[in-house]
Amino acid sequence: MGRATAGSARRSRRGSAAASSPAGGSRRGRGKKADGPPGGPGAQGEPPGPSVFDLGAQSGRWAAFQERHRLSCEEAARLLLDAYEYRGLVKHTGGCHCGAVRFEVWASPDLHVFNCNCSICTKKQNRHFIVPASRFKLLKGADNLTTYTFNTHHAQHTFCKTCGVQSFYTPRSNPDGYGIAPHCLDDGTVQTIVTEDINGKEWEKAVKEHKTIRDMSKP
What is the mean pLDDT of residues 17-44? Predict the structure, then answer.
């Protein structure tokens, strides 16, 4: 994968529904109503740690937030951390054809997709966008995945054992991230797609000269 040639960027639109912000996304479940905020009146001078922290003047707001949205402490923390860390991003979901493999990934609603012409990407039409590993989560199907490698064996071409669809993989150019197939995402969260052609036939030269591809898998 490497540098785009002049005039190779193409823009398209997908989906009709605008993506919601991470803070307003769906909750994974409903937890018990909290008795009170961590570090509040019930805390007996315990030092801050992984599960105990002092909210100070925000204790009342935290308790009200949990109660209003019926969230456990962990659910509330995850929701707010996602909203802060993934500002400007949306949560896409997707998977293979048979449904055995499902995942979620935080990325922009406006996707930058690579169209590589190396031997394997040409054979399987492997168009993909790159994200850091920390923004990808496999929801199910780990036991239903198998992996194909060749040449340097650095790229991990994972695909579903049942239907054969590769919905994501680990690119050679970005071993610390994932390449996600935009055509395997569920409808409703992608607004636009810009496609960049990559000269994968001269992979080493193309990746070396590309100014941004290595950084796309950095958190």
Answer: 41
DSSP secondary structure letter of residue 76: H
Two structure tokens written together for 175: 């071993």
Instruction: Transcribe 112-177 into DSSP letters.
Output: EEEEE-SHHHHHHT-EEEEEEGGGEEEEE-GGGEEEE--TTS-SBEEEETTT----EEB-SS-TTE
d(CA 56, CA 43): 12
For the stretch 139-197, pLDDT in tens is 999 999 999 988 888 878 899 999 999 999 999 888 999 999 999 999 999 999 999 99
CA 196-102-177 angle, 5° bins:
45
pTM, 2 dp? 0.64
Strands 102-107 and 90-95: antiparallel
Per-residue pLDDT, 95: 98
- Alpha carbon 147 to its chain's center: 20
The whole-angstrom separation of Cα 163 and Cα 165 is 6
| Nearest-angstrom CA–CA distance, 48 and 207 | 45
